[in-house]
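Bumping my old thread because nobody answered last time. Still need a sequence for this structure:
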């Protein structure tokens, strides 16, 4: 798509569609066009500003709350500024930009409704206990708890998990990713928008994949991640299917357009 900085308005007419149903050309354009990326950021913030989740974030951050912060830009910058060999965990432990990112993604309506697709499936498969790996601000942890599952969150102690505790009316149990080997098996592992952030999937979640009956992740056939190289390292569906099969997990039947994919033993 032709770029015309600095006053490109190419993608703006398509924001509503991109928000609702995604669009590969708009996503690719945003990658290469800073003016449209800024407009897209403001567009999402303006929608988010009408929601209770936004009000929660503002209350939580108090005077440091920064409206219209372009968290994707900040994340990409912080990611590039890491010292070589820095632990990926340290990045997430300290990132307030990631908290903003997760809130605006959800509050703008851009984040697919993974729970609407996944909760009926978990019920159907007889799941009772769920580990929400990479739970962040609890975008799924809380609806899964509301749906009656016994949910354990898993994430680094971070601004995101502090916000989760702040806003939850449930008692929240969040364990550190380094401690998963100490946990009992779960009926289901719920892992959304996280596999792309794991440098070594076998090391990070192998112990969980060996024991879980069900694994739910986002639809890996859908292109993801605008933030940039390194922060996401997209896995292909073929790669993940092969990896899951090594742990005895095979694909569960779901519509091709579903926002989630599931694997079962
Ligand atoms: Zn543009």
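Sorry it took so long. Here it is:
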């Amino acid at each position: 798509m032709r770029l015309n900085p600095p006053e490109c308005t190419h993608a703006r007419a398509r924001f509503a569609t991109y928000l609702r149903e995604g669009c590969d050309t708009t996503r690719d354009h945003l990658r290469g066009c800073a003016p449209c990326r800024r407009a897209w950021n403001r567009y999402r913030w303006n929608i988010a500003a009408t929601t209770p989740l936004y009000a929660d974030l503002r209350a939580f951050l108090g005077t440091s709350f920064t409206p219209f912060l372009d968290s994707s830009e900040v994340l990409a910058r912080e990611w590039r500024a890491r010292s070589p060999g820095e632990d990926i965990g340290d990045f997430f432990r300290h990132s307030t930009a990631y908290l903003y990112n997760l809130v605006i993604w959800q509050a703008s309506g851009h984040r697919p409704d993974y729970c609407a697709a996944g909760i009926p499936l978990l019920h159907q498969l007889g799941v009772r206990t769920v580990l929400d790996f990479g739970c962040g601000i609890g975008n799924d942890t809380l609806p899964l708890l509301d749906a009656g599952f016994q949910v354990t969150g898993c994430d680094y102690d971070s601004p995101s998990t502090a916000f989760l505790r702040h806003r939850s009316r449930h008692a929240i149990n969040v364990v550190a990713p380094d401690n998963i080997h100490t946990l009992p098996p779960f009926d289901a592992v719920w892992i959304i928008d996280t596999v792309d952030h794991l440098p070594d999937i076998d090391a990070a979640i192998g112990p969980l994949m060996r024991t879980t009956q069900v694994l739910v992740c986002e639809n890996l056939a859908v292109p993801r991640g605008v933030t940039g190289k390194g922060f996401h390292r997209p896995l292909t569906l073929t790669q993940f299917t092969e990896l899951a099969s090594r742990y005895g997990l095979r694909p569960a039947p779901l519509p091709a357009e579903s926002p989630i994919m599931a694997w079962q033993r």
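The first helix runs from residue 15 to 21. Let me know if any region looks off to you.
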